[in-house]
Design brief:
The structure is a single chain. By secondary structure, this protein is mostly helical. The protein has one domain (6-140): Alpha-Beta Complex (Sufe protein. Chain: A), CATH 3.90.1010. It is 56% helix and 11% strand. It is built from seven helices and two strands. It has helices spanning 6-18, 23-35, 78-91, 96-102, 105-109, 112-115, 118-140, and strands at residues 58-65, 68-75. It has a two-stranded antiparallel ribbon. The radius of gyration is 14 Å and the shape is globular.
Length: 141
């Protein structure tokens, strides 16, 4: 259970990246985060859970429990797995309305958008759109 607000988690992510001097260190940190992702159930690696718009294969699923949205995801690419780990940390375990209200400004703050290749940037935004879609759907329930 996360006792921090979504804004506090986003600020913590920005602060964490400010300690890393250059982008090689930041990329390595992202890859390391991806290596620590929990195992993703093979049963969810289906077209239904596949994120459209990613060059790498990405599967993402969401479950609403006790008014919060819990996300799981995986990818077949190391850097993308790290991006997933960042997004799960930023959004999983929060109320759907909080996810929608928080936005994704932390990505620009850490400079991620400008340091990813165009295809990875498109994939990152596809994952964010998918998370937001799950949050919208959860608000409608």
């Amino acid at each position: 259970m996360n006792s921090q607000s979504i804004q506090e988690v986003h600020r913590e992510i920005v602060d964490e990246f400010e300690f890393l001097d250059d982008w090689m260190d930041r990329y390595q940190h992202i890859i390391d985060l991806g290596r620590r992702l929990p195992k993703f159930p093979a049963a969810y690696q289906t077209d239904e859970h596949k994120v459209k718009g990613c060059q790498a294969q990405v599967w993402l699923c969401a479950e609403q429990r006790d008014g919060k949205l819990y996300l799981q995801a995986t990818s077949d690419a190391a850097i993308v797995s790290g991006l997933i780990a960042l997004l799960l940390r930023a959004y999983s375990g929060f109320a759907p309305r909080a996810i929608l209200d928080a936005g994704h400004g932390f990505i620009e703050e850490i400079g991620l958008a400008e340091h990813l290749s165009p295809t990875r940037g498109n994939g990152l935004h596809a994952m964010i759109r998918t998370i937001r879609k799950h949050a919208v759907n959860a608000c409608l329930v």
